[in-house]
Design brief:
The chain is α/β, with parallel strands linked by helices. It contains 16 helices and 21 strands. Its EC number is 3.2.1.10.
Length: 549
């Protein structure tokens, strides 16, 4: 209980209009967090029941993945009604109760907004496809066939195959960047933009504190429908037709920032609202900065530097941080237009980092170093549910797959289901305490052994280590919001210096499974925390240390 009080106090110390700058956000995937009604699927009341655990970590807020009405062909990212809760997750009253409990605990609440596409079962699309002259005829991207009947352009969908599907009702093709059941909205249409802003206002009025905006760079397309050029071979395996093109015409249109400014203007009418965009693709770094430029666009952008990286290296960390330099001596409201990043090592779309980045014999030590590293980064940090427990990627056999991308591209695409497995709460309990019915995906035996109850009672557990790292970050301005004074690589060793308010904190980490000796003078200052074994200038495998000077 004392730890929980201290965590809440640490959050309160940073409470102002820019609570989000340097915040730690905990991502919740609703289907897999906690099942309160024994149907095998997590739900909003289940989230509310477990918010004490989230608050005990010392995070500033939660991000909840989609829970809106949906046929679930892409598990909530195919929205059929933006303003309601899907019955499998509960009701609007359940959402209101979740908001109230989160705010009681001092947690901000962010929700997903999926603007680039809807479900083909959305009322907007059903009207749009009914004729070429109805009021919503131009709310989606429709185009005539070429003279030979082929699609209007060569654009390919992310999930495989052409980005166009024929619709006999209109005698035209409609565009979809993902599944054919996820038609692309026409983001250029002012009426569509207003409808999306009205959706945001609906949730702001219900008390949400911000939005994570999904696939924002897919919102607008080239109206001329020009073909994408071929992509040069970069040496990486190509498992989808999408990989063979430079995506210069089907996404990333120059008018997207103007709509972003409308989103920001709406959010600024509410207190302390935080907006973060998901931006992926080959041009992500430029677009992330474009979408967060100045004080009229989004607060932050969420990149993929770490999410799909095959290996964690000091150079990867320094390169990522180097993309977001500070303009002033310290970061803050007056830091200028450099932008503010958000970082995650894991999420619902990417394989668990612990399974990607080290061998099983080093999982425990690596997970501890990884938690410390995440808490050392300049920007907001996002912790994916179960990351605080060190959950592994679970192998899901083909016959149990739900992920449409993995099914379509089997076996070349690693299933996202392996990172979406249920949260283990009680080790010696049916379904690891997730719920009383068989869950929609297996928990995984290794993950069940890492349940919250077991780790919570162990002072030396990864769970309690994560709490300690988050508290360290929250209590030191240099770590939470300070600038990067230096970032350098010494072989497998990362040396990162952060500065704010006259405080300088150095983070040194061995990112290898071998013991390393540091160059003389690397370890200097007062020790704030040591991880996995530090002896003078020697770091054990995945050893790390925080120093203050």
């Amino acid at each position: 209980m004392n730890r929980f009080v201290s965590m809440k106090s640490a959050r309160a110390d940073n409470g102002d209009a820019e609570w989000w700058r340097g915040a730690a956000i905990y991502q919740i995937y609703p289907r897999s967090f906690c099942d309160s009604n024994a149907d095998g699927i997590g739900d909003l009341p289940g989230i509310t029941q477990k918010l004490d655990h989230v608050a005990s970590l010392g995070v500033d807020g939660i991000w909840i993945s989609p829970f809106f009405t949906s046929p679930m062909k892409d598990f909530g990212y195919d929205v059929a009604d933006y303003r309601d809760v899907d019955p499998i997750f509960g009701t609007l009253a359940d959402f209101d109760a979740l908001i109230a409990r989160a705010h009681e605990l001092g947690l901000k609440v962010l929700i997903d907004q999926v603007y680039a596409h809807t479900s083909d079962e959305h009322a907007w699309f059903e009207e749009s496809r009914s004729s070429r002259d109805n009021p919503k005829a131009d709310w989606y991207v429709w185009a005539d066939a070429k003279p030979d009947g082929s699609p209007p352009s060569n654009w390919q969908s992310v999930f495989g195959g052409p980005a166009w599907t024929w619709d006999a009702r209109r005698g035209q093709y409609y565009m979809h960047n993902f599944l054919s059941s996820q038609p692309q909205v026409n983001g250029h249409n002012p009426d569509v933009q207003q409808a999306l802003l009205d959706v945001a206002k609906f949730w702001l009025d219900r008390g949400v504190d911000g939005f994570r905006i999904d696939a924002l760079n897919f919102l607008m397309h080239d109206p001329q429908l020009r073909d994408n050029p071929p992509a040069p071979d970069n040496g990486k395996p190509r498992t989808r037709p999408f990989d063979y093109q430079l995506k210069v015409h089907n996404q990333s249109h120059k008018d997207i920032p103007a709509f972003i400014e409308r989103i920001r203007a709406l959010c600024d009418r509410y207190d302390a609202v935080f907006t973060v965009a998901e931006v992926g693709g080959d041009d992500a770094a430029r677009e992330m900065k474009l979408f967060t430029q100045g004080d009229r666009r989004l607060n932050s952008a969420y990149g993929f530097n770490f999410l799909y990286a095959d290996q964690l290296t000091p150079q990867l960390v320094c390169d990522a941080l180097g993309e977001w330099p500070a303009d002033g001596p310290e970061d803050g409201p007056d830091a200028g237009g450099a932008g503010w990043p958000s970082w995650a090592f894991e999420n619902h779309d990417a394989p668990r980092a612990i399974s990607r980045w080290c061998g099983p014999e080093h999982h425990d030590a690596f997970a501890r170093m990884k938690a410390a590293l995440l808490c050392s980064l300049r920007g907001n940090i996002i912790i994916y549910q179960g990351e605080e427990l060190g959950l592994n990627q679970v192998e899901i056999p083909f016959e149990m797959l739900h992920d449409p991308e993995a099914i379509a591209n089997w076996p070349q695409t690693l299933s996202r289901d392996g990172a979406r497995t249920p949260m283990p709460w009680i080790t010696q309990c049916e379904n690891a305490g997730f719920g009383h019915a068989a869950p929609w995906l297996p928990v995984g035996d290794e993950n069940a052994a890492k349940a919250v109850d077991r780790q919570g009672n162990d002072p030396a557990s990864l769970l309690n280590h994560t709490r300690a790292m988050l508290e360290l970050r929250a209590r030191h301005p240099a770590l939470r919001s300070g600038r990067v004074a230096a970032c350098r690589c010494e072989g497998d060793v990362l040396v990162l210096d952060r500065e704010a308010d006259g405080q300088r904190v150095r983070f040194v980490a061995n990112l290898s499974p071998e013991t390393v000796t540091l160059p003389e003078g690397t370890v200097c200052g007062d020790v704030m925390a040591a991880i996995n074994g530090v002896d003078g200038d020697t770091l054990a495998p995945y050893g790390a240390i925080f120093l203050q000077s």
